[in-house]
């Protein structure tokens, strides 16, 4: 903390995981995802964060703060011996012993702008986040055919919240989530299939808006 209202942070993390729970595809006439214990996993990375109160530069911006953080992740798991043997069979020919860890995105970015004015009881926050490509289901075999990993393509979201004290006991709150309503795309991805990514699904969740009142006696 170089001075009041400012923060600079950097950190590194590492985990060595025994029997990590991984999600893999299973195809028996239809496709579904099932959890499986893998032999070993490792996850490491680092995070950088910056925060700054803007009234340090201009008094008129009292209560306004900005911030950003970025996390970079490297997660890997070792495949069970039975999967290694199946993927190495002549009809499949997709030999690999390690892959990305499920639900461990390549990176996470966050930007935010907050306003907190105690005198009027007003608070507001605008958050933007971006999650990088994320493995959500590992590869599988179906009738001697290779079914590639399924990844969720990187996606950004924008959320807003505003609250206002109406009296000592009553507070009004407005929230808007997923404002930009981006498409959520899942793709089949593997170094062992030609032509690059193949779309599996593409959809959007829709934006969500809510208002509410909180009364505290």
Q: What is the terminal-to-terminal distance?
A: 38 Å
The pLDDT mean sits at 93
* Helical fraction: under 10%
Structural class: mainly beta
Number of helices: 1
Supply Rg.
23 Å
Largest sheet: 9 strands, antiparallel
Please give the number of β-strands: 17
User: Strand share of the residues?
Assistant: over 45%
In a nutshell, what does this entry contain?
The protein contains one helix and 17 strands. It has 217 residues and is mainly beta.
Question: Can you offer a commentary on this structure?
Answer:
The protein is mainly β and 217 residues long. Helices cover 3% and strands 61% of the residues. Strand 13 and strand 14 form a beta hairpin. 13% of the residues are buried. The model has no long low-confidence stretch (mean pLDDT 93).
Question: Layout of SSEs?
Answer:
Elements: E1 6-18, E2 21-27, E3 31-37, E4 40-53, E5 64-78, H1 81-87, E6 98-100, E7 107-117, E8 122-131, E9 134-137, E10 140-142, E11 145-147, E12 149-152, E13 155-165, E14 170-177, E15 184-189, E16 198-203, E17 208-215
Antiparallel strand pairs: 1-4, 2-3, 4-5, 5-6, 5-7, 7-8, 8-13, 9-12, 10-11, 12-15, 13-14, 14-17, 15-16
Labels describing this entry:
1 helix, 217 residues, single chain, mainly beta, four-stranded antiparallel beta sheet
């Amino acid at each position: 903390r170089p001075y009041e209202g400012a923060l600079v942070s950097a950190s590194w993390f590492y985990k060595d995981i025994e029997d990590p729970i991984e999600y893999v595809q299973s195809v028996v006439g239809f496709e579904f995802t099932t959890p499986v214990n893998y032999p070993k996993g490792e996850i490491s990375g680092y995070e950088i964060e910056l925060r700054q109160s803007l009234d340090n530069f201009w008094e008129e911006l009292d209560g306004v703060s900005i911030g950003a953080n970025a996390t970079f992740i490297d997660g890997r798991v070792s495949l069970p011996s039975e999967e290694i043997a199946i993927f190495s069979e002549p009809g499949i020919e997709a030999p690999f012993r390690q892959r990305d860890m499920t639900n461990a995105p390549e990176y996470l970015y966050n930007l935010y702008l907050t306003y907190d004015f105690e005198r009027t009881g007003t608070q507001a926050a605008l958050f933007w986040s971006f999650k990088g490509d994320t493995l959500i289901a590992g590869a599988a075999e179906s009738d001697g055919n290779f079914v590639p990993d399924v990844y969720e393509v990187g996606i950004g979201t924008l959320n807003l919240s505003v609250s206002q004290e109406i009296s000592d006991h009553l507070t009004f709150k407005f929230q808007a989530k997923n404002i930009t309503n981006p498409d959520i795309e899942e793709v089949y991805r593997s170094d062992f299939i030609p032509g690059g990514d193949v779309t599996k699904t593409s959809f959007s969740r829709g934006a969500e808006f809510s208002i509410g009142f909180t009364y505290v006696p």
